[in-house]
Amino acid sequence: MSHVLAGVRRNCALSKFCTDFAWRSINPSQYADQAAYPSVLRARRPADLAGAAARPSLRAHIARCRMVIPRPVPAVFAAVLCWLLIVFPAPGPADAGAVESQEIADYLSTHPGGKALNDNEISYDGGALIVTLRRPIGTLAAADCPSGWYCFYEWPNYGYPRGRLSDCGRQSLATWHWQFRVESAHYNLGSGTVSFYYYDTRLFDIGAGNRVRSDASPYRNWPNYVDRRCR
After folding, report:
1. Which pLDDT score is estimated for 139?
2. How many distinct structural domains can be found in the chain?
3. Do 1 and 30 touch, CB atoms closer than 8 A?
4. Burial of 178 (0-12, 13-18, 19+ CB in 10 A)
5. Where exactly are the transmembrane stretches of this chain (predicted)?
C-alpha cells in the first residue's frame, strides 16, 4: 500500500487531498458515512484552495491525481507460463519400444531371433553376430569389416547384407540363418585364420596372411559352418 501512496504523492500537486482520495478508493469502509466525506476533504485541502471558485471539481481532482497502480506482474507471468505449457508441452521420455524400420522388420520376419540395434544393424545371440543390412552411404564397394571381426557377405565383391563374428572355434551359421549365403569374405583381426565349411568339407580360408576373398566361387552359397583358429 505504501508504494501506491508514494506514487500518488509524486504525481499529484494536491498531495494531501490525493492521498486521502486514494486511500478512500482503496479502503472505502473508512468513510462509511458518505455525508461526512466532503467535510473531511474540505478539512484536508490546502488553504490556497479555500475559495469556492478555486475549488476544482471531483473529476478534475481524479484526473490530476493520475494514480498508477502497479500491474500484477506475477499473475501475468503465471498466466503466460501456463499458456506456454499447454501450447508447447514438455517432451515425454523416449519410447523404448520405438517402431523399427520396415527394412529391419522385413529381415527379422525371415531371420528371427535378432534385436535391432538401430535402423541398419541387428544383433543376434547377445552380440555374437552382428548383421548390417546396407553399406553406409558414400562408401565404396570394398572389403570393410570392422577391426576385431571377420565378415562374410551375401553377394560377391562385398555386397551387403554383411554378417560379422569374432569368436574362436567351430560355429554353425544356421544359428543365425546365414547358412548357404556366403559369397565373399574379409578377415580383419590381428592373428589367426577362419575356415569355411560345407558340413565337414573345408572349402576356403581367410586370415591374417590372406585377408580377403572377393568371390567365394566356386563355393558361393556353400558354407554352413565356420571354424576360427585364434593362433
Report:
1. 84
2. 2
3. no
4. buried
5. 73-92
* CA dihedral (218, 222, 225, 226) positive or negative: positive
- How far apart are the C-alpha atoms of 185 and 164, rounded to whole Å? 10
C-alpha cell recorded at residue 10: 509524486
> How is residue 149 written as a grid cell?
571381426
Within a domain: residue 140? yes
Q: The C-alpha cell of 39 is what?
A: 467535510
At 17 the pLDDT is: 44
Can you tell me whether residue 93 is helix, strand or coil? Answer: coil
| Chain CA centroid to CA 114, Å | 27
Model pLDDT, residue 82:
55
Closest by Cα among 140, 143, 120, 144 to 132: 120
Q: Domain span at residue 108?
A: 103-229
Question: Does residue 186 share a domain with residue 126?
Answer: yes
Q: All 3 cell numbers of residue 49?
A: 484552495
Give every CB contact of residue 35 below 8 A, 6+ residues apart in sequence.
none
Residue 88 has what pLDDT? 54
Are 220 and 161 in a shared domain?
Answer: yes
HSE-CB at 142 with a 13 A cutoff on CA atoms is 4
Query: Mean pLDDT in each 10-residue stretch from start to end of the chain (231 residues)?
Result: 48 45 47 46 46 52 50 58 55 45 95 96 97 91 96 97 98 97 98 98 97 98 97 80
List the grid coordinates of 150.
571377420
